[in-house]
Write a structure and sequence with these properties.
The complex is a heterodimer of chains A (461) and B (225). Chain A has helices at residues 5-58, 60-72, 137-187, 203-250, 256-288, 300-317, 336-353, 407-417, 451-459, and strands at residues 78-82, 88-90, 101-108, 114-123, 129-135, 296-299, 321-325, 331-334, 357-365, 368-375, 421-426, 431-437. Chain A has 461 residues and is an alpha+beta fold.
């Protein structure tokens, strides 16, 4: 039972509270005793002084009357008055003949019973002795009351602490048990299992939610891994089979020339297979998400411009046009190389499979930074739109053009890594692939602030 | 050149050794990490070709050990893992270049050659010259036969890289990595296009031709023999 953390904690807290009740009780006890004694003594002294004054003014007989009067009043102090020779004159304390100064003696009560009385005896003018005392048992009684109150409190703390602790630990243990059960379930292979989250949004709920998100992430990774294995099995088998056939048939070729041709064909096949393979690995690697840790602020417009500058010449040579519409300085957090690859793939895709003109555009919108590639081709049938970012998916009309069917899958993986959304927008003619990135949150410093921009904006009317 | 090849795969090692020998190099082949470390630390080589994954002793461990003991021989790392972090790790451990398996032999050869005669800090040199072609890195001008040639920034970078490696074959991948800083293959003819534009600017109308395409390997900028 004590292997439960929560129960152990509850027991520890109960013990600590009980101990503090004991300490508090002891302090209260001592303090009441000291305070009450002082108060009693002060009262006795005051009474003595009062009666001594009366003796001086009115004479001894008046004091005798006063003492007799007070003895009849219930709840008053105890008195004793003895003559100069020690003969008792009045008061219940007189027969005990107490010594001078403070003393303590048991006194028989009129109702029977004995009480302990603390008293002070002084000599009055004229030689008579006056004793004033008070029932000491009242202090004892009060102390007993305090003690019993604290004993009850102690018992209460222990019982409530134990009950509360048990209840608390039971609820915590139940919820931890749910987590353990879920974890065990997952270990046993039930990967869809999740930890139930209560509505309280307390720390355990947040822990459960974090666990669940972790599990979701793992499930996504597993799914992507499974997908990759399936893709590899499916789409590498075809070229591997072709390669095998080529090599097989080359064994029966007679001339060296033919054999050399078959071999270089086989080599090309191998290269194509390796290319597909490394593209798949790269997608898997990007989907793993580890590169997110090395994200830096990247300026999208300058990146896009340099990509367009690099790719425009080959587009021109192929009789196609590539242009750039610069939307000004836009910063996002990302991996520059991956963003470059994303752009290359989008541009290449537009020019290879769509029209003869493509335009890259950067601009800011409310939701973030947009970089888009727009072509003037026939567009994408709406039924196929959701699939063009899948691995190995190719539109019917693109099947004859070269390509692995992985370019846009890589784009999608890079976008996901950057938290960007991809949209397809009809442009009639053509289609615009639009990636919307969250804006950079990181502080950045420009080594060379764009002086030209500020100069031109100052010059404009 | 005298090369050390540390590669545990016997078949691949034997093939590389044979091919490198055919290319005119003397090759010592170590099949284990410990043997490789002993040779690398003990003998003088022009280039060390080091596989990253080795039995006994990991390639990076060897690299760190020999670098710590003051061996400055250029090292080309071969690896089956081509992630960006692995590349950075390899270069930080003291590697000079990094080649991901599987690779074409010409790629290996070009990189070994580039490493072996890696130019002494030519970066300090303001002008590069091959035959009558001159490139001024500070003024960013190119002159051939006394006439100024206008180049786009990327073409200038390309020419600079070729001139720094004059006489040696540079592969398409080397150009992508060094000039474009692309550690991926963009699958476009970006290199070819820029190369043909560069060629038309620096070679057309001049004699002799300086920029040569080496079939199946890459490009080479060299003076006529």
């Amino acid at each position: 039972m004590f292997r439960s953390t929560s129960l152990r904690l509850a027991a520890l807290y109960t013990a600590a509270f009980a101990l503090s009740v004991v300490v508090l009780g002891a302090i209260t006890l001592v303090t009441t005793r000291v305070t009450l004694s002082r108060e009693f003594d002060a009262r006795i002294k005051a009474e003595t002084v009062g009666l001594a004054q009366e003796a001086r003014k009115e004479g001894l007989s008046s004091v005798v009357e006063a003492v007799q009067e007070r003895d009849r009043t219930p709840g008053a102090l105890e008195y004793g008055l003895c003559g100069p020779n020690g003969e008792p004159l009045a008061g219940r304390l007189a027969p005990t003949r107490p010594p001078l100064g403070w003393s303590k003696a048991p006194i028989r009560q009129p109702g029977g019973g004995v009480e302990s009385v603390r008293m002070m005896t002084t000599v009055l003018p004229g030689g008579a002795r006056l004793t004033v005392g008070d029932d000491d048992d009242r202090i004892e009684a009060l102390q007993r009351a305090v003690l019993s109150a604290f004993a009850w409190a102690f018992g209460g703390v222990v019982v409530l602490g134990a009950l509360g602790g048990y209840g608390l630990s039971r609820s915590v243990r139940r919820r931890l048990g749910e987590m353990t059960d879920a974890a065990e379930g997952i270990i046993d292979g039930d990967l869809a299992r999740r930890i139930p989250v209560g509505g309280a949004d307390d720390d355990l709920d947040r822990l459960a939610a974090s666990f669940n998100r972790t599990l979701d992430r793992i499930a996504t990774l597993m799914e992507s891994l499974r997908q990759v294995s399936t893709d590899i099995a499916h789409d590498l088998r075809t070229p591997l089979t072709r390669l095998r056939q080529r090599l097989e048939s080359s064994r029966s070729l007679a001339s060296d020339d033919e054999r050399a041709e078959a071999l270089s064909g086989a080599l090309e096949d191998v290269d194509a297979i390796l290319e597909t393979f490394s593209a798949l690995l790269r997608i898997a690697q990007i989907e793993g998400g580890a590169r997110r840790f090395s994200f830096l602020p990247v300026e999208l417009s300058s990146l896009a411009k340099s990509m367009v500058d690099d790719l425009a010449p080959s587009a021109e040579d192929a009789g196609r046009a590539l242009s750039f519409d610069n939307g000004g300085e836009i910063w996002v957090d990302g991996d520059r190389e991956l963003l470059a690859q994303m752009l290359v793939n989008l541009i290449d895709n537009a020019l290879r499979h769509a029209g003869d003109r493509a335009q890259v555009r950067t601009h800011l919108v409310d939701q973030g930074a947009v970089i888009s590639v727009c072509d003037n081709g026939p567009g994408v049938p709406s039924a196929e739109r959701s699939r063009i970012f899948d691995r190995f998916y190719r539109l019917e009309r693109s099947r004859s053009t070269p390509g692995s069917g992985l370019g846009l899958a890589l784009v999608a993986a890079i976008a996901r890594l950057h938290g960007a959304t991809l949209d397809l927008v009809d442009r009639h003619p053509g289609i615009e692939v639009r990636a919307t990135f969250p804006l950079s949150q990181k502080p950045r410093t420009l080594a060379f602030p764009n002086l030209q921009d500020s100069a031109s904006s100052a010059a404009s009317p | 050149m005298k090369l050390l090849l540390v590669e545990d795969d016997k078949e691949a090692g034997a093939y590389l050794k044979k091919a490198l020998a055919e290319a005119g190099h003397t090759v010592d082949h170590a099949t284990g990490g410990r043997e490789g470390l002993l040779l690398a630390a003990g003998e003088a080589y022009d280039v060390i070709i080091l596989d990253r994954m080795l039995p006994e002793l990991d390639g990076l461990a060897i690299l760190r050990t020999i670098r710590a003991s003051g061996v400055k021989t250029p090292v080309l790392l071969l690896t089956a893992v081509g992630g960006i972090d692995d590349r950075v790790e390899g270069l930080e451990a003291g590697g000079d270049d990094y080649l991901v398996k599987p690779f074409a032999f010409v790629e290996l050869l070009a990189r070994v050659n580039a490493l072996a005669r890696r130019p002494p800090p030519q970066d300090l040199q303001a002008t590069l010259q091959v035959a009558d072609l001159q490139l001024d890195r500070l003024k960013r001008t190119v002159i051939r036969g006394g006439a100024r040639i206008e180049l786009q920034p990327r073409e200038f970078q390309l020419l600079e890289y070729l001139m720094r490696h004059a006489g040696r074959v540079v592969t398409r991948t080397m150009l992508l990595e060094s000039v474009w800083d692309f550690h991926f293959d963009p699958k476009t003819n970006i290199v070819e296009t820029h190369m043909s534009r560069l060629r038309s600017k620096i070679d057309r109308g001049y004699s002799p031709e300086l920029l040569h395409t080496v079939r199946g390997a890459g490009y080479c900028l060299r003076e006529p023999d």
